[in-house]
UniProtKB/TrEMBL annotation:
Transmembrane segments: none annotated. The keyword Nucleotide-binding applies. The keyword ATP-binding applies. Residues 413-495 form the Cdc6 C-terminal domain. Residues 1-28, 38-55 have a biased composition (Acidic residues). GO terms for molecular function: ATP binding. Residues 1-59 are annotated as: Disordered. Residues 109-319 form the AAA+ ATPase domain. Belongs to the CDC6/cdc18 family. It holds the Pfam family Cdc6_lid. This is ORC1-type DNA replication protein.
């Protein structure tokens, strides 16, 4: 996961604007009871009568759902992928990036840049904003400058990174060659009718033009797209090297989530990219790395670290007031008229301020609140919709985290759930381990050591799924007291959707195992 979690033992800071009670109050409960779930709306529109009536009702299903006026004018501006025309409270970081990259417009190689900051602090949006401005300005001044974006959370191996870059430049080279061939064919056609047009051209004859066309056609034929698997890595690197060096240009390679690449594949990719300028004849390459992890460079080869981190830019978290400004700017474009009540944006900002000043979380809250209001077929987004959105997003996060846990972690978590459901309090590691062993035997899974199970509990703690506190038992030593930090029923349902855990018919005997030695 790219999102950081607070220490479960630490109370979250109160947001700057503390005029909002972030607890779910009676009013929000009442609002939730009035707000139909989409499934309920669908069922209400389906007749339980005979098949003909049911079919007729189904055909009017979406007409009923579309009766209300849409709240959104442009929902896309509330998504993380949207790059706004203006980024409030990031002027300093944007100016720093521009100062470094302006050398590309002079044909020189910009310094490599490392950008740090927690999730939702505007790193990627700012970098993309600066990159778009850089490419636009380069076209204005006819300076060959390109920016290529790679998301290393998706493209997370050296082979995939190099293959994707190689294919991007191969396709661009082919486009350039096609344009040149088209211009030369037009010039040759005109020269055959009147050779006077060659007076201002670089070619003395039609034959010379045709020779150049043949040469470009041969160049085009040599560019072979790199498959996503199957080639030796050296060959992929050579293809990328030849493609990027085909003609003069300055290239900025933006590696988002660069720490994921290092974590999965080591620093070989960064080593190759950061040292290739010494071998290039026509092009120059600069790297812009974006990371949520301020310490990932600790694991890099010192040579890579020194060349990669030539310039560093840190993005601090947003405070509640800054989040308000960001949300207001997006809301003005995203929603129709006065669709938002006065307390919606401050409440979204207050919730997100607890999440390390995460603007992405704030935008998700605002968008989800709008979607819930539309389902409610109302033309206003109210405070209750924001509170529902907060609960929905948190539950969705829990479901996704639990669903993607390794099997062993799921078994450990299931053991904790079984203990809590049976009224056990102050659960300790030994009790969890006893149930864990019996569960493993039931589903024929390998049984890990108690020390490893303790490590898995710590990992669940870091993910915010459980709360594990070390307490002193005096002369009996210290132990961990464990409790769930997520909704029990929903979490259990996700675990039982795993085919292996879902095969357990009767869990009660496993709870009794807590008394075994």
């Amino acid at each position: 996961m790219t999102d950081s979690s607070d220490d479960p033992d630490t109370e979250p800071e109160t947001p700057e604007d503390d005029s909002y009670d972030l607890s779910t109050d009676e009013q929000s409960d009442e609002t939730r009871s009035r707000t139909p779930d989409l499934d309920d709306v669908v069922l209400d529109n389906l007749d339980t009568g005979d098949s003909d009536d049911s079919d007729e009702a189904s055909r009017g299903l979406f007409d009923d759902l579309l009766e209300g006026e849409p709240i959104f004018e442009n929902k896309e501006v509330l998504r993380p992928s949207y790059t706004p025309h203006k980024l409030p409270h990031r002027e300093e970081q944007i100016n720093n990036m521009a100062t470094i990259l302006v050398t590309a417009l002079r044909g020189d190689t910009p310094s490599n840049i490392l950008i740090y900051g927690k999730t939702g602090t505007g790193k990627t949006a700012s970098a993309k904003f600066v990159s778009e401005e850089l490419e636009t300005t380069s076209q204005k001044y006819e300076v060959p400058c390109e920016v290529e974006y790679i998301n290393c959370e998706v493209t997370d191996t050296q082979y995939r990174v190099l293959a994707q870059l190689a294919n991007k430049f191969i396709n661009k080279n082919v486009e350039v060659i096609d344009d040149q061939i088209g211009e030369l064919e037009d010039l040759a056609s005109r020269a055959r009718e009147d050779d006077a047009v060659l007076g201002d051209a670089a070619f003395g004859s039609v034959d010379a033009i045709e020779d150049e066309i043949d040469s470009l056609t041969a160049d085009k034929a040599e560019f072979e797209e790199v498959p996503m698997t199957g080639w030796p890595t050296d060959r992929v690197y050579s293809s990328f090297f030849e493609a990027v060096d085909y003609h003069e240009r300055v290239v900025v390679i933006m590696l988002d989530e660069i720490d994921k690449l290092v974590e999965k594949s080591g620093d070989d990719t960064l080593y190759n990219l950061s040292r290739m300028n010494s071998e290039l004849d026509n092009s120059r390459v600069s790297i812009m790395g974006i990371s949520n992890d301020l310490k990932f460079t600790d694991f890099l080869d010192p040579r890579v670290k020194s060349s990669l981190g030539e310039e560093e830019i840190v993005f601090p978290p947003y405070d509640a007031n800054q989040l308000r400004d960001i949300l207001q700017a997006r809301a003005d474009v995203a929603f129709k008229g006065d669709a938002l009540s006065e307390d919606v944006i401050p409440l979204c900002a207050a919730f997100a301020a607890q999440e390390h000043g995460d603007a992405r979380r704030a935008l998700d809250l605002l968008r989800t609140a709008g979607e819930l209001a539309e389902r409610d077929q109302t033309d206003h987004v109210e405070e209750g919709h924001v509170r529902q959105a907060q609960e929905k997003i948190e539950l969705d996060r829990v479901v996704e985290v639990v669903r993607t846990l390794p099997t062993q972690s799921k078994i450990v978590l299931f053991a904790i759930i079984l203990l809590e459901k049976n009224g056990v309090r102050n659960i300790n590691t030994g009790e969890v381990f006893n149930i864990y062993k019996n569960l493993c035997e039931e589903i024929d899974a390998d049984v890990l050591t108690q020390r490893r199970v303790t490590d898995l509990i710590s990992e669940l703690d870091m993910l915010g799924i459980v709360n594990a506190v070390v307490v002193s038992k005096g002369r009996y030593g210290r132990t961990k007291e464990i409790s769930l930090s997520v909704p029990t029923e929903e979490t259990e349902a996700v675990l039982l959707s795993d085919s292996r855990l879902g095969d357990i018919d009767d869990v009660q005997p496993f709870v009794q195992a807590r008394f075994d030695n």
